[in-house]
Amino acid sequence: MRLVSIPPPYGPPHDPGPQGPCAQYPAGSPRDAGPAARFPYGGQPGFAPYGLYGPYGPRPPAAVNGVAIASLVLGVLCFLPAFGLVLGLIALRQIRRRGERGRGMAVAGSLLSSLGLALWTLMLATGAAADFWEGVEDAARAESIHTLRKGDCFNARGGLDGWADEAAPVSCDREHDGEVFALVTLPGGAYPGDDSLGDTADDRCYELRDDYAMDRWALPATVEVYYFVPTPESWRFGDRGITCVFGHRDGESRTTGSLRRDESTLDPHQSAYLEAARVLNTAMDDVPDTEFAEDDLRGHTAWAGAVAGAVAEQTRMLRAHRWPAGARQPVSELAEGLAEAEKEWVKAAGAGDAETYHEHSERGLDLLDPVETVTARKALGLTSSLPRYREETGREPESGDMKV
Fold this sequence. Notes:
Blueprint: H1 35-38, E1 53-54, E2 57-58, H2 66-77, H3 81-98, H4 103-126, H5 128-141, E3 153-156, E4 167-170, E5 178-185, H6 194-212, E6 223-228, H7 232-236, E7 241-248, H8 268-285, H9 297-320, H10 325-349, H11 354-367, H12 374-380, H13 390-393
Antiparallel strand pairs: 1-2, 3-4, 3-5, 5-7, 6-7
C-alpha cells in the first residue's frame, strides 16, 4: 500500500506553531484569527480548496451517465416509452456501480417514460392511436398533387386551368376542383418529354375513365378529363406518376358530389348492365379517323365488323344475366333490338362500296338509338336522362355518348 499525502493548502509556508492539544497561539497570529483568515481562498476545515484532490493533483468531477441522458430524452419526447423506461433502470444501476452522476435524469426519464407507456396503452385500447396516425398521414399528404389517392376530391391552388402544384384534399360532398379517378405508374429511365407524357396520359386516363365512372350517362356534360404528369424536375426526384382527374370543363368552376360509379357504389345488376354496355362503347370509341367511307372504305368496314362483334357480345351478356323481376322484360326487349342492329353492322362490314356501307351502318346506328335503353335503365335504377350534346353544351359529342 502506498501512502499518499494531501498537499497543503495554497498560500505561503507558515510555522506550525506550538504542538499538542493544549498548545496556545500568540494573540493576533493566523492560528488565532478564525476560519476566514486561516482559509483565505474559501476552503473549509477538512476540505481542500477548489475541489477534490487525488494522488496526482486535482481530481475532476464524476462523469454524467449517457444512458440517463437518453432515458430523459425519450421520456420528454414520449417516443418509444418502453425503451425510455428500460434505459432509465439501466442508468440507475450503472450510476450506483460506477459512481457516475445523472441519477435525477434517470429517475425523471423513467417516470416520464412510464407515463408515456400508460398513455400509449390507453390510446391503443381506445383506438385513439389509429386516429392519431391517420391525422399525421393526412397532414403529411396535404398540399401535394402527386400524393392524392384514387377517389380523393381536392382543391388545387390556381384551379385546374392553371399551373396546379398544390392540392388540399376535401370531402367530395363539398365544392371541389377535381376528383382523382385513376393513378398510372410510369416505367423508369430517362425523362420521356412533355409530348410523350401527354400522349400517354391522354390514352391511359380515357381508358381508365370507365373503370371509375362506369355509367357515362351519369357524368355531367360539363365534366372533362384532366391529368397531372411529372415535370423534368420532379422526374429527377423519382416522380413516375400520372394523376387522372375529373374536373369542370372551364377549369375554374367547382363541382359537388362524387362521380364514382363502380362496383363499390352500384348493385350487382347495375354493374352487369353497365359492363355489357361498355363492350359496345369501347368498340364505338375506335371510330375511323376519316369521316367518310369514301376516303377509307377498308377502315370503315373493319370498324363495322368490330361493332358487329361488340353488339353480339353485349346481347349475349344481357341474356345470360339473371335480372330482377322488374327489369327482365325491358332488358329482354333491349336485347332483341340489339340482335337486329347486329345484322345491319354485319352487312356494313361486308359492303363492297361506300354507298352500301352507309346504308347499313346508318340503319345500324338507328337501332342503337340510346332512347331504346331508357326503359331498361329506369327498371335498374340507373340514370335515365339522355346525355346533353354539342348543341346544349358546346362540347363535341364523343362516340361513346350514343351508347346504352
